[in-house]
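To the team - pyridoxal-5'-phosphate complex, inputs and output below.
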Amino acid sequence: MDTLGTLLPRLLTVIPGPASRALADRLAAVESRNITFVDDGWPVFWDEARGANVRDADGNVYVDLTAAFGVALLGHGAPEVLDAIRREAPRLVHGMGDVHPPVAKVRFLEALARVLPWDQPRAVLGSSGSEAVEAALKTARLASGRPGVVALEGGYHGLTVGSLAVTARPDFRGPVRDRLYPGVAFLPFPTEAGTPAPGETSVGAALAMLDRWIDDGVPTPSGRVPLGTVLLEPIQARGGVRALPSSFTAGLTERAREHDLIVVADEIYTGLGRCGSVLASPLVGLEPDIVCLGKILGGGMPLSACVAPARIMDAWPASDGEALHTSTFLGHPLACAVGEAVLGQVAADLPDRARALGERLRAGLESGLAGHPDIRVRGVGLLLGVDVVDDGTPRTGAGVRIARALLRRGVLALPAGDRGSVIELSPPVVLTEAQADFAVAAVVEAVQGELA
Ligand SMILES: Cc1ncc(COP(=O)(O)O)c(C=O)c1O
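Output:
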């Protein structure tokens, strides 16, 4: 069948084509110049998307291995998503989230409570991942009673002023450093590898640093502040698809229990099925007190959540008429209606489907790239990364060059990792076998091209 969604790439023009180039010129005339990167080979402008296909403004069809930043796990324009929009849109497009709440918000939160592994989960909704992280930082501050935070180098938690305070990347932080909350200390990423790569450290050294901050507080320019929160991704996604080693999470759990630390798992990328289970935290032995969700949660509508058991969330006082944390679009009815449909899929078999397809992709990549000592295939389920290293050191920009080569072949993928050495694959679960095999072959060829 010749239907957008299940097609292999079909390229009609050079990439980017003339329509994309013209749109890039128009965009440059109206958007802040820092937002959309444009050069001779980048970007293509999306016009339509279904299943695992995207069609650009020139009519070129791509196979999408990004799911648009991991969001479209169910596939672009998934029937469940479109049905929910069709049902809710004529009834209520916008509501009054924390004053006279939409019915859809209640239904959505009940569905969320059913899929999460806690008794009495309680949520704070938002529209973006960054907002969920900020809500978690506030909640953990209240619940722990202490302001200091530890996060991980390579972690990505968003770019709003509150979430950027826990995102380690110097390029993002540099221009606005003096706006950011200073009571955050960053641990190098812990690894069990014999020789840690640059930016990584041994599990023992990471735990020793954590012990020092627990004992002495987190250093700030105006003195040390007591540590109350540890915030981290179970598997760093944009940080290069790096899973926390279980020896580290075991050490963290022990310390969190002993010192009443609040552990926040940022599962905005990893959660809700992508990694083959509802949450990725149990896969790496992480035991979070608070979980942040986003991306997949709204099935493409902007929706996020900071969720914790009542014993943690009740650190917030009961509302006395004025919510201390809310926003105009909190509990947006359209987003909640779609979110409820997404959660139905999560509760059914979305994680199993992601695991099965992920195994197929991983096996293909591993066999296609076998014999290359400079390649590491990482990740789980449909969050996979191919890291290109030279003598143990990530090869700067390899993922960027591979993403460009793939685009020219009609495959959408994004680079990851501090040095852009990783090509990240986070495709929709509806990738057909033919699309999956094509994509694997294209990635293998592009990686081999990088190594040649
Ligand atoms: C793990 C993680 N946390 C937080 C965020 C920020 O989410 P948003 O861009 O929706 O604010 C992202 C975005 O990629 C992410 O991957």
